[in-house]
Amino acid sequence: MTAMALQEVVDAVVARYPGVVPAASWGETSLFVNPGRQLPRGVYFCTLKDHDGANDRASQLDRDGVYRLALGLPSAAYVQRFGARPARPSKGGVVATGHDFTQRNVLMPHPVYGWMGWVQLLSPSREAFDALLPLLDAAYAEATAACARRVAARDRGAGVRRRGERIREDQ
Length: 171
Description:
- Helix content is 29%, strand content 18%.
- By secondary structure, the chain is α+β, with helices and mostly antiparallel strands.
- The chain has a six-stranded antiparallel β-sheet.
């Protein structure tokens, strides 16, 4: 099966989901839910990456034509598909799931962020991408709800600092 081009995946996700904004960040293309660009970035739910990083080499993304489509799943969706989330790996390590993280066109836990419920699909075919749509829908719905909560908190004046510290309303 022929893999979709990376940009073809970006275009398909942006066309399917309202309020999704692509942005280059952390050396990859991140897709943020940010309707009306109400937040500085929004909530990211999907990323595409075509090269290895210092602590992320398990998928061997530097191979010709290989890229990673990754998305963060709601907890229940991850557990239903893969069982309990694995433990967080040490820096430079991978999650212990027994998967061959170099396999193309196979949905599996993300080698670094599987512990957070992220999954990957390397160089998906159109058929594999279409089969992934229910999980993308779930990830989008969760990110949309998180974005709405952030906008509501901002509008209430509560705000959130970088480390999750709430800003006092009298400040």
